[in-house]
Please model this.
Amino acid sequence: MWLIVGLGNPGEKYARTRHNIGFDGLDALAKRHGLEFRGKRANSLIAEGSIGGQRVALAKPQTFMNLSGQAVTALRSWYKLDAAKELLVVYDDMDLPFGKLRLRERGSAGTHNGMRSIVGQLGGSEFPRLRVGIDQAPGKLDAAAYVLSRFSKAEEAELHFLLDTLSDAVELVVREGLPAAMNKYNPS
Model:
């Protein structure tokens, strides 16, 4: 089984912002596989089903970004998962150009507060993650204001393609494992 967690902030105010690319990615993946976010568990919206013959739970924590670790830890316990092998966290990353994906088996939280919360709550960084590039804040724009802003018109035009590629990458992780997906989707 895979627990796939998309990070974001709940509420219409944050919908379609850069910081919510994890939520948007899971929405696209769920739609592709006919899954619906019907349930709620561990303060998260849950869609359960299968992808590529594997059982999956898609989760969108409703704790707000900075407390994501509370939901992820509770979900890991509920599903009795080995985080290093059965958890995938999808989130925005300002250190990658817009639209670029990077899969990692483990790593630091960097400056991302949602990931800091997860690493802190899980007690380590030994879990797979899919970083989705949203690019650096332009000029002197504050990073917090930037991640909570909406995509530009040009980015919005590319968002459908990005979410399709994100879904393809998650599907490959589930079907064939993280190394296969890293070989295909990580920039060289």
